[in-house]
Amino acid sequence: MCGIAGLTYLGKETPLPSVDLLKTMASALKHRGPDEFGWYRDLRTGFAHARLSLIDVATGQQPLSNEDESLWIIFNGEIFNYIELKAELVARGHRFRTHSDTEVVVHAFEEWGRECFQRFNGQWALALWDERKCLLTLSRDRVGVRPLYVHRTNNRVMFASEVKALFVDPSVPRSIDVRGLDQTFMYWASIPPVTMFEGIEQIPAGWTWSVDRHGKWQEDEYWRPTYPSAAALRTAGSKPTLRQATERLRELLDKATELRMLRADVPVGSYLSGGLDSSVIARLGRKAAHGEFRTFSIRFSDAEFDETPYQRAMASTLDSVHTEVVVTRNDIAATLPDVIRHTEHPILRTAPVPMYLLSRAVRAGGIKAVLTGEGADEFLAGYDLFREAKIREFWSRQPDSTVRPRLFDRLYPYLARSPQQTRAFAAEFWKRGLDRVGSPEFSHQPRWSTTRTLKRFFSEPVREQLSRRPGPSPLDSLPEEFESWDLLGKAQFLEIATLLSTYLLSSQGDRMLMANSVEGRFPFLDADLMEYCNTLPPEYKLLGLNEKHILKRLASDLVPEMILKRQKQAYRAPDAVAFLTSTAPSYIGDALSKEALMHAGLFEPNAVDGLVGKLKGRVAKEGEQVLFTNTENMAFIGILTTQLLSMQSVGTPMASGAEGLPWVRQIDRSGVIAFHS
To answer: How many CB atoms neighbour CB 439 within 10 A?
Structure first.
């Protein structure tokens, strides 16, 4: 795992890429790859690389080329089927100098061109430079595990793993893109190619972009989730039995986990949340591990969020060296600014903060890579959202029924113990959009309508900008076959496109792991396994209201019964209340002051002041055990983190930091000073 950055000039007469700039870009990414650094340049293009050494530690330095040095690469990620691909390429006459997966990518691109990305089973963001054709190719993995940002002008293209590596160049403007803000306050994240910064794009998951020296771009989507049509599901006569499907899923998950454990030249540990997904992965990881196995868990001082009994129950079955990180409200408040420096994006919940603290403990324990359970909820229908949509669709057939909405009590038993006023409020909430069961956003409408209300805090100038230049909606680019899918397939597609790739694998995933130089590996996001999950009949995934039914069957002999039968608990952390106590850090008042709000110009100061005053008043009245509403929590955290992002990124000079780094690979093919080291 690594950090990559680079640039290429377009047109006939181009300046020489600056080595100092390349080094500074790499130094801005040194947390992603602190082990080794390298750069390459020719007359038109420059690459910079910060390496976290996991595969072929001895000879896998980058930038790296083919035999005649006409094709160069910088690569962030892992291709887990690289050994199999290498054997195929050797049979076709390719010769290799290293044992790295990076070199396999180079030869695969030589052999199959852009089609090679469909053959890769892995997680990646990469840049390939064909010196002869003067062609730059940028690619990102299927679901966007690894990030890749682009800044393009008429005469230059810059790219990097993180925006901070682009901002080291003072000519790159720094301002908030209100379209990204607008999307965040509805979908929890900006939707690529839109980002939080004007002029900065992110390559969407599953896409490849390329540009030639004339500035001609080619942008292709090589993968997106797809599902059987509802008609095909009704008429299919050859679908596997549930037992057969479970056995096949187990085979694929075994293989996916084993690949991610063994295809590394360093030890691989595992996260352990106490839930089903991470427990299954940890069990299969233990099976594949040789020798000591390390597991890592988050504990909370707040009992409401803590899952310690389940974590310890699973750890006790693994013979693992188990590490627990206890997170308090004060930890969350103190750490948030560091987290936003790495997310480079606002967040609406504090859930990424404990993940940052957990990865720090992983790195301190000498582990560079961990398995995690991300992807199971999306591909095997584990979220409450999928069950909510199923109930709402059932209710829509008799919208006047007072019995059918009581099915929500099975999802949220606490509603049954609440006063009738709460039940009535809940019924009205779930009834929103019930008459639009055929609309593309039906499954997500209640959630999105809630988040959309946060936009009332936007300033008038932001509202005016959005009225003139609204941001694109993910509903604008749905695949043609979307309408043919059943309700669950549609909901899964939207969840993957709007939350998994943009938030869970980014702000809560890659950024929190790589902030501490740790690579995450995700067996449920294995290419073959994802494809198989998407072919499964919906009732194998969501049987009645029993989520992840097939995974529970698979796990029956892998995890303790208390985990198998526990009610699903979404991962959460203390939110607004952590920032409103008497011990809250001073930066909070600074970020939410009228002066700071007016300077950023994104939120209405009086509205924000009213929100903060209301929440502080409730803390003073009810104490620190106060329960804010979901909307109040998201509004406070969203505004605070947007303010932090603006203060940290807009107009802030970037220091070099390139001095003293281990530059083990330096390649100058500019003709001015040509050398390798």
So the answer is: 12
Structure tokens, 350: 């504090």
Question: Which has the minimum average pLDDT: 50-54, 83-87, 628-632, 634-638?
Answer: 50-54
CA distances to 10, 229, 403, 412, 427 from 409, rounded to whole Å, are 60, 31, 11, 5, 11
187 found inside a domain: no
Q: What span, in angstroms and rounded, lies between the C-alpha atoms of 566 and 550?
A: 16
Beta-bridge partner residues of 50:
3, 37
Distance, CA of 31 to CA of 383 (rounded, Å): 32
Q: The domain that contains 556 carries what CATH number? A: 3.40.50.620
Q: 80 and 157 share a domain?
A: yes
DSSP state of 368: -
Q: For the segment 541-576, what is each residue's pLDDT rounded down to a tens digit?
A: 999 999 999 999 999 999 999 999 888 778 888 899
Q: Is the peptide bond before 63 cis (omega within 30 degrees of 0)?
A: yes
Q: How far apart are CA 65 and CA 103, in angstroms?
A: 7
The domain containing residue 104 runs over which residues? 2-174+654-676
> What's the pLDDT tens digit per position in 162-196?
999 999 999 999 999 999 999 999 999 999 999 99
pTM over 0.90? The answer is yes
Q: Are strands 207-212 and 45-51 parallel, antiparallel or unpaired?
A: unpaired
The structural domain count of the chain equals: 2
Which residues does 220 contact at the CB level (< 8 Å), separation at least 6?
Answer: 114, 207, 208, 209
DSSP states of 396-434:
HTSTT-SSGGGGHHHH-GGGGGS-HHHHHHHHHHHHTTG
Q: How many CB atoms lie within 10 A of CB 217?
A: 11
Whether 508 and 355 have beta carbons less than 8 Å apart is answered as: yes
CB under 8 Å to 232, separation ≥6 — which residues? none
Contact 103, 85 (CB under 8 A): no
Kindly report the length of the chain: 677
From CA 363, how far away is CA 374, in angstroms rounded? 20
Residue ranges of alpha helices (H) inside 432-526 are: 445-452, 460-468, 487-495, 511-514
- Write out the DSSP string of 164-216: HHHTTSTTS---B-HHHHHHHHHHSS--TT--SBTT-EEPPTTEEEEEETT--
Using DSSP's 3-state secondary structure scheme, residue 122 falls into strand
DSSP label at residue 44: S
Among residues 448, 490, 454, the alpha carbon closest in space to that of 473 is found at 448
**End-to-end CA distance of the chain, in Å?**
22
From residue 355, alpha-carbon distances to 232, 349, 494, 503 in Å are 41, 12, 24, 13
Is residue 15 reached through a cis peptide bond, with omega within 30 degrees of 0 on the bond before it? no
* 6 and 142 fall within a common domain: yes
Is residue 419 very low, low, confident or very high in pLDDT (cuts 50, 70, 90)? Answer: very low
Rounded CA-CA distance 448/444 in Å is 6
